[in-house]
Every structure is written in C-alpha cells, then in structure tokens.
C-alpha cells in the first residue's frame, strides 16, 4: 500500500545554476522527510529549455536524476519566463499548496536578491502564507568543465544511411533540433549535441560530425519520422 504523506505541509526548494543546487535539494528532502510531506523543486530561466548551454543543461540533468532518486513530488522547470521571479514563486507555491520555501544565499546565484531586504519584502507580500528558509551556501568555485567547449550553436541531427550526422542548416526532412557544443582546439566537428525530448534534456557525443552513440537518437528519430 502506497504511503500517504501529510497534506497540511509542503516544501518548495528554489534552485539556480551553481554547485549549491544539490545541497539545497538534499536539505529540502531532509526537512520533507522529517515532516513526512511532499517536496517540490523549482528552477526558472528566461531562455527556452532547448537553448540552454552545456553547463545549464548539465545542472538540469543532475537535478532531474536527483529528483527521481529522492522521489520528490515534482521537479518544476519554468523556462522561457519573462515574469519577475517572485511572481513565479508565488504561482508555484499556490498551485502546490506550499507552506515552506527554501532558497540559497549565494553571491553568484540569481536567488541572491532574496537576501536583500527590498526583494524579500516583495516576495513576502506575494506569498505571505509560507515560511522562508534562507540557507547560507558556499561561493561556487570555477566549474572544472569551463573552457572545454565553445559557445553552443543551433544544429540538427539527420539520418545519413545507417549513421546520424550533424548539420547546421535547417533540413527540409525529418531531423532532431538542438544545440551543438564544439570542443575547443579541434578542427573537426567534435563535441556534444544537446536536445530536448519529452520535456527532458538529452545529450549525445559527436565525433567528426557523426553521432558516436546513436542508440538514443535511433529510437527518437524513428518516432520523429512518423
């Protein structure tokens, strides 16, 4: 019989890109476990999901895997958002009956504004019905993978006989659209190709213009041709 969690408490963890996201999620999970209540994760970005760079996509993938591991109620990604953050937090909190919100105090996080009185006052006015936990986190160190890839460019993966190759002009036949991140220091099209499918980010390796691990592409490409 499935365990039924209490409904009078619900926790929302707000994460932005950086090395502290996992820590905040685990902090929220610990509190949710103690209270035996649902846990939600929220991240917000002004860009659409399929336009995320390699670093952002990597965080989304790790947070998605962690959410599945911890069996959180829902990982909410608000992409392509132009509204103020506090409006989005308030909307998500109301929709999910949130009673407690966890955010991180980080000098290089978009959520840093929450530590400033003016923003916090605005946020409290938007969601006066919740308790806030502002967690002190370490300043993120430089990403070990920075400098590995060039800036991402729009690209497409198409079928080429029994293989799949990457092209940079929109084809007139079935293809998979995404972002290609070329390795720095190579004369060939070597790197990674990231794309969105069924509301999740996926990644395949590209070697000399061809997909080197085509199993995922093959299954998705078969669907796209229908």
UniProtKB/TrEMBL annotation:
A Gene Ontology molecular function term for this protein is:
phosphorelay sensor kinase activity
Q: Which UniProt keywords apply?
A: Kinase, Transferase
Q: Which InterPro entries match?
A: Histidine_kinase_KdpD (IPR052023), Rossmann-like_a/b/a_fold (IPR014729)
**Presence of keyword Mitochondrion:** no
Q: What is this protein called?
A: Histidine kinase
Q: Name one GO cellular component term.
A: plasma membrane
Query: Is Transferase among the key words of this record?
Result: yes
Q: Which domain of life is it from?
A: Bacteria
> Could you say which residues form the signal peptide?
none
